[in-house]
Each structure stands twice: as C-alpha cells, then as structure tokens.
Amino acid sequence: MNATQYLQHCREEVRKNFQRVQAGQPDEKQKSRIEGLLHAARLLELVSLEELNALIEEEHQAVYGESVAQRKDRLARKTTLDELKENDPDAYFAIPAVERRF
Prior knowledge:
- The protein is an all-alpha fold.
- It is built from six helices and no strands.
- This is Glutamyl-tRNA amidotransferase.
C-alpha cells in the first residue's frame, strides 16, 4: 500500500464512520481505530495536520451537508432548546417557532 492508497483508505473509513453516526449507530471502537489511522498518517509524514483537517471537513460536508462547525453549533442550539423546553416550557414557547428551528 502506497501513501495515496493509505490516505484514500483513511478517507473511506472517516466517511463510513460519519455515515454510521448519521444512521444512529456510532461505533466508539471504530472511531478510535480511525483516529489511530490518522495519527499514523501524521507520524509517517504522509499528510499535514491542515490536510487531515481538510479531509475530515470534506467527508463531513459530503455526509451531513454542513461543516463540522455548523453541525456543532446546530446541535448545541438543539440541546439548549431541549433543556429549555423541559425546564421552562413557557420560555420555550415564548421563542418564535422560526427561531426554534435547527
């Protein structure tokens, strides 16, 4: 396996992991293995940290249709709104429905 094939394998594994998470079937062991693959690519100097981040961002965009940062913000808003809905329903429903969309 050459460097290009190794990086392609990493890309495929990252995408499969995102797809499993999206399907509601996260696999922590597989996630750890993928992190190991990516770390090895860095140690072997096959790719820079910036290139790895770009690879992850591209695959995340392909699977979720949004950037890592956008998804993180959206999920944080959802969590906040869910907590508000549970703890103070009046305050939750005082927020216009269009603003409660995530």
